[in-house]
Amino acid sequence: MPTLVADSLDLPGLLGREAMLAALDAAAAQVRSGGQPLATLTLDVDHFKDYQDQAGGDKAHAVLQSLAELLMQHRPAASTLVHMGSDEFMLLLPSHDLAAALLVAERLRGEVAQAFSTLGRGLTITVGVAASPAAVNWSARTLLALADARMTFAKRRLLPHHNLVWAGTLPSDWYLRLDIEPGVWPSL
Predict the structure, then answer these.
(1) Which of the two ends of the chain, N or C, has the fewest CB atoms closer than 10 A to its terminal CB?
(2) Phi and psi dihedrals of 142, rounded to 5?
């Protein structure tokens, strides 16, 4: 059984998983000092494992490299893109509230769907979105965990299980796993 490819991608300005926590903590400290929000997007390529199994590791790696380049090209100027490994990415959006982060997520989702459909790949992304709540003590790592949980929830529970952006509420037992209260975090 083949494993997923690309623990790292070669692209200037793209951070890897090992640098992610430091970048996340630095972004949180910066926005807190300025009284600004911080948003995170977690992105996962839909049906990537199937694509890799059919196309092979080299083509799958090329797709991830193309995706990283596309995300770098279309991300907001002050944002940070992180390759988490395999087919997962994270985008840090300083000074973005939930509404602004949703706009970025939808734009990126559309750009990826359009670019990959014209290349004959038919791949899409599902995006989880979270933003720091105003006037509440929050943890940057919990913010990331919430975005990731929303992305996972969208892929598993929302139809059509791909090509989605989700920043809505989660079932109450999902919040317990994150060790946060549901009412603390903004949702649609």
Answers:
(1) N
(2) -70, -35
Give me the amino acid identity at 99: A
Which strand ranges, in their side-by-side order, compose the sheet holding 165-166?
A: 15-16, 80-85, 88-94, 38-45, 125-131, 165-166
Q: Give 15-184's CATH code, choosing from 1.10.357.10, 3.30.70.270, 3.30.1490.20, 3.20.20.70.
A: 3.30.70.270
* Distance of alpha carbon 176 from alpha carbon 24, whole angstroms: 23
3-state DSSP: the chain helix, strand, coil percent, rounded to 5?
Answer: 50, 15, 35
pTM of the predicted model as reported, rounded to 2 decimal places: 0.88
Contacts of 84 (CB under 8 A, 6+ apart): 17, 20, 42, 90
Tokens of 172: 């109450």
List pLDDT tens digits, range 50-96. 888 988 988 888 889 899 999 999 999 999 999 888 899 999 999 99
Domain ranges in the chain?
Answer: 15-184
Residues with Cβ within 8 Å of residue 145, at least 6 apart in sequence: 178
Cα gap 30→172, rounded to integer Å: 31
